[in-house]
Amino acid sequence: MWSSRAYHAKVLHAAGGTADAKRLFADAEERYRKSQPNNHLLYSVPGYHYCDLLLSIGESSAVSERASRTLEIMKRNDRPLDVALDTLIMVRAHMGRLLKNVTRV
Description:
mainly alpha, Serine Threonine Protein Phosphatase 5, Tetratricopeptide repeat, 5 helices, about 0% strand, globular
């Protein structure tokens, strides 16, 4: 059930429904947490899409924190695709912060 919520959230976000998508991602993550008590964050493709939404609303610090937490787990579990997704989203968050600082100057 959590995965269908995450997918629906991704589609809503792509269609411009950012606020509704954020609520659905949070709900998906809560449902995931209940089904997998040892995992507290969405990861892999759903986690990437959640972070993409967070970046779109300027929450780059939250994205960096989430991705750094899941990156370590993915490395330990030898999941190269997920390591790549976490690395990519961390770079995007870093670039977002740099661009925000450049536009202030």
